[in-house]
Amino acid sequence: MTRTVSTAAQPLWDIPTRVFHWSIVCCLPIAWWSAETERYEVHEWTGYTVLVLVLSRVVWGFVGSRHSRFGDFIVGPGALLAYLRGARATSVGHNPLGGWSVVLLLSLLLLQAVSGLFNSDDVLFTGPLYYWADTGFRDTMGVLHDVAFNILLALVCLHIIAVLYHQLRLKEKLLQAMLRGSAEGREGTERAVAWWRAVCVLLLIALALWWGLEQAPKPSFVF
Ligand code: HEM
Ligand code: HEM
Fold this sequence. Notes:
This protein is mainly α. It has one domain: Fumarate Reductase Cytochrome B subunit. 64% of the residues lie in helices and 0% in strands. The longest helix has 35 residues. The termini are far apart. The site of one protoporphyrin IX containing FE (HEM) has 21 residues, from helix 1, helix 5, helix 6 and helix 7.
């Protein structure tokens, strides 16, 4: 007897992957706005949120549900070239090009958040690792924080254009799947890993980050 599994139990994108995605989408404009308006407390906390979310997504890429795992959508150069020449994608999740763009987006988000930890506006706000680094390293991180954001913006624009192309031109239901988990033609092939495991991963990472940043050297002068 064959057992049918509901699309809710066997989604293409599990709940943690979707929550991660839409949370990042909310965080980026807030990080941008808070930097531009010099609301650094908001900026700092948004940055920590991004850092914890991205690190959790990286861990979920190893222990999460089938199509959220890097092993499901990262392919070698040969398979990527074959896809670009017209071969079919091997995964029902991210296609080979999309898979590498996910890695690039996650890496840039990580670089953005980590470089922020060493950053300062030279007036009122310093990142928690500012006093840990020497001047040369801080300067490099300051430049990276600026440059990475511009690259990130360009990539996000490309990402949105690619999603819209697949959605509107190729009539693939990418958005519905990223919102609801599955959609017609975008169904998962395995049962999802329990979402509460992602909550445990997230809490552990947040705790480790908080503890690690607490150990950072503080300024030696007091006003
Ligand atoms: C702040 C800007 C954004 C960033 C940093 C971002 C990043 C990402 C990442 C990292 C993934 C991979 C998901 C994963 O496997 O964890 C993804 C997938 C996806 N994103 Fe975004 N995203 C952004 C904005 C948007 C917007 C505005 C839309 C809607 C138009 C969108 C629609 C999608 C869809 C539909 C997927 C699934 C693609 C697929 O089926 O292969 N994203 N995004
Ligand atoms: C992914 C998360 C983050 C994003 C998208 C982001 C984005 C930005 C942007 C667009 C700017 C203005 C451009 C610039 O002057 O470099 C900025 C400035 C700044 N950010 Fe972030 N940031 C993030 C995380 C962080 C974190 C975690 C910290 C520290 C806790 C931080 C600290 C700063 C500081 C101190 C500045 C002012 C730099 C200056 O005035 O030269 N950022 N950030």
